């Protein structure tokens, strides 16, 4: 469902991604970890078609994100860490706008609006200007936008940012539920999110894949502690 083959992204002489390869199957929820500047954000931008790789191939649902971008991103729901939302619109207006832009029918828009309103707890927000919403409310609106067209692949960048503990719990449950039938790549710096939602961990460092395995295997690399495993794998410590 998500495939990277020898991906490289160079900025001058600097390699943000260096021969990065992996694949993710349907039904997997994968935590994507890495220190700042390791290439994690660049990888997600390439996978979503936001930037083109210098070399290598990225595919979504078998579609090349570079040569068949329009069809590929139809399969994708993307939640950036600080996603662009139109502050003068309400969530209802925003979601209807995105639905129409994607060519969804009126009945499809109404059906999906009901679904994301319940799943993302938007009831009290639907007709509130987004510019007046809190950070957490905006994050829930962004999640609704990512889910609105019922995509097969979800790429979520820090999805619980700005949420209160009850909302975090709800998002965790939603991601696990969605992951039963979809493919989810979840970027986070929070190890409790990894343990709560992911069945697999990928860690990048210096543009390369430094670890790929289960959360339990990841913890073993740090004598049972995820933060120690992260430190060991990204600093060369023993």
Shape summary: globular
**Structural class of the helix and strand makeup?**
alpha/beta
* CATH level-3 fold name of the largest domain: Rossmann fold
**What can be said about the biggest beta sheet?**
6 strands, mixed
| Helix fraction by DSSP (H/I, runs of at least 4) | 25-40%
Radius of gyration, in angstroms, nearest whole number:
18 Å
**Uncertain spans:** none
Q: How far apart are the first and last residues' alpha carbons, in Å?
A: 34 Å
Strand order of the largest sheet: 6-7-8-3-9-10
Helical element count? 9
The fraction of residues in strands falls at 25-35%
**How many discrete domains?**
2
Q: How many strand units?
A: 10
Question: Overall pLDDT, averaged?
Answer: 93
Report on the structure:
A hairpin with a 2-residue loop joins strand 1 (2-11) and strand 2. The protein has 9 helices and 10 strands. It is globular, with a radius of gyration of 18 Å. The protein is an alpha/beta fold. It has helices at residues 40-47, 69-73, 91-101, 106-119, 135-147, 165-178, 191-197, 215-220, 226-235; strands spanning 2-11, 14-24, 29-33, 55-60, 63-64, 76-79, 153-157, 183-187, 200-205, 208-213. It has 2 domains: 1-75 and 152-238, 3-Layer(aba) Sandwich (Rossmann fold); 84-150, no CATH class. The strands form 2 sheets. Strands 6-7-8-3-9-10 form a 6-stranded mixed beta sheet. Strands 2-1-4-5 form a 4-stranded antiparallel beta sheet. The model has no long low-confidence stretch (mean pLDDT 93). The longest helix has 14 residues, at 106-119. Helix 3 (91-101) crosses helix 4.
């Amino acid at each position: 469902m998500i495939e990277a083959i020898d991906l490289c992204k160079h900025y001058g002489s600097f390699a943000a991604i260096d021969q990065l390869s992996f694949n993710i199957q349907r039904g997997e929820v994968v935590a994507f970890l890495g220190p700042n500047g390791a290439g994690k954000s660049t990888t997600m931008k390439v996978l979503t078609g936001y930037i083109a790789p210098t070399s290598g191939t990225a595919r979504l649902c078998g579609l090349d994100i570079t040569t068949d971008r329009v069809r590929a991103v139809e399969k994708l729901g993307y939640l950036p860490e600080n996603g662009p939302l139109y502050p003068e619109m309400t969530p209802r207006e925003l979601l209807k706008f995105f639905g129409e832009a994607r060519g969804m029918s009126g009945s499809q828009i109404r059906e999906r609006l009901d679904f994301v309103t319940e799943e993302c707890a938007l009831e009290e927000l639907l007709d509130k200007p987004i510019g007046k919403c809190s950070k957490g409310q905006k994050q829930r609106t962004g999640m609704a936008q990512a889910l609105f067209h019922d995509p097969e692949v979800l790429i979520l960048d820090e999805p619980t940012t700005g949420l209160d503990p009850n909302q975090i719990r709800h998002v965790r449950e939603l991601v696990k539920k969605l992951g039963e039938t979809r493919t989810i790549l979840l970027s986070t710096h929070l190890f409790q999110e990894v343990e709560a939602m992911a069945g697999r961990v990928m860690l990048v460092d210096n543009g390369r894949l430094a670890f790929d395995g289960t959360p339990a295997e990841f913890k073993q690399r740090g004598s049972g502690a995820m933060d120690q495993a992260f430190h060991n794998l990204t600093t060369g410590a023993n």
